């Protein structure tokens, strides 16, 4: 594919990734908004459609991470092949780690809908439900790989002058902020409302970058122009 095609695919995928991520969060919050394991399982039983849709959205998020890995690598590899490959690996790891959580949702859906002889007794169901509902790390491990990959690709976009310098610098700042903040949050050193606000610069960057890639594409790298 050409650089222009890769840029358009990356721009569309960025917007798509954000949209389905928000939809996924809304659906799961609606399906599990109850107090106590038994109450959550009962609520999931009444919102099976939300959970099934969310499973599909989770899969689409994983595929989106893979698409972004490939397209951003294709755009930036002429600037620095090794760094672009590292960025690709990080974004692929983000998608793979995201897929690991899907079996938990499938298990929760099975627990909430199974009846008859195959259904576990109430004590076992409660214990299994508590395990399946065990909260994921905050932030998710995949988010750290996202931050590292985004930092690398933003630096390459900046070095190659492929997008406006101000936009590329915003990407470097927003991604590097997450690279520092997310591990500290994971280790428990960074908590509270500020932990959520650290995502705002990255969200603004991607919402600006996506339409730029869709409409303007990417310029030829500075290295290629010099050659």
Structure, briefly:
The protein has helices at residues 3-32, 37-46, 48-76, 81-100, 102-113, 122-132, 141-159, 165-186, 193-197, 200-215, 222-226.
Protein described:
By secondary structure, the protein is mainly α. The protein has eleven helices and no strands. Helix 2 packs across helix 5, helix 3 runs antiparallel to helix 5 and helix 8 packs antiparallel against helix 10. The protein is elongated and about 65 Å long. The two termini are 22 Å apart. The model has no long low-confidence stretch (mean pLDDT 90).
Salient structural properties:
mainly alpha, 227 residues
- Nearest-angstrom radius of gyration? 20 Å
What is the tally of beta strands? 0
What fraction strand? under 5%
Q: Return the average pLDDT rounded to an integer.
A: 90
Number of helices: 11
Largest sheet: none
Elements, N to C (H/E):
HHHHHHHHHHH
Distance, first to last CA: 22 Å
Morphology: elongated
Low-confidence blocks of residues: none
| Estimated structural class | mainly alpha
């Amino acid at each position: 594919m050409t650089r222009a095609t890769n840029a358009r695919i990356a721009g569309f995928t960025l917007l798509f990734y954000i949209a389905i991520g928000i939809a996924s969060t809304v659906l799961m919050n609606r399906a599990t908004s109850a107090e106590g394991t038994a109450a959550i399982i009962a609520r999931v039983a009444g919102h099976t459609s939300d959970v099934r849709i969310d499973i599909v959205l989770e899969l689409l998020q994983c595929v989106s991470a893979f698409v972004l890995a490939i397209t951003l690598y294709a755009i930036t590899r002429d600037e620095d092949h090794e760094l672009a490959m590292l960025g690709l690996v990080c974004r692929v790891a983000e998608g793979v780690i995201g897929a690991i959580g899907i079996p938990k949702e499938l298990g929760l859906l099975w627990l909430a809908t199974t009846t008859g002889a195959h259904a576990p007794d109430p004590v076992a169901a409660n214990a299994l439900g508590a395990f399946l509902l065990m909260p994921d790390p905050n932030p998710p491990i995949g988010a750290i790989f996202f931050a590292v990959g985004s930092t690398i690709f933003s630096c390459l976009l900046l070095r190659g002058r492929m997008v406006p310098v101000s936009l590329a610098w915003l990407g470097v700042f927003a991604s590097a902020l997450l690279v520092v903040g997310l591990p500290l949050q994971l280790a428990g050193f960074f908590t509270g409302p500020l932990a959520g606000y650290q995502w705002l610069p990255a969200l603004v960057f991607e919402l600006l970058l996506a339409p730029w890639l869709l409409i303007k594409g990417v310029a030829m790298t500075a290295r290629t122009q010099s050659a």
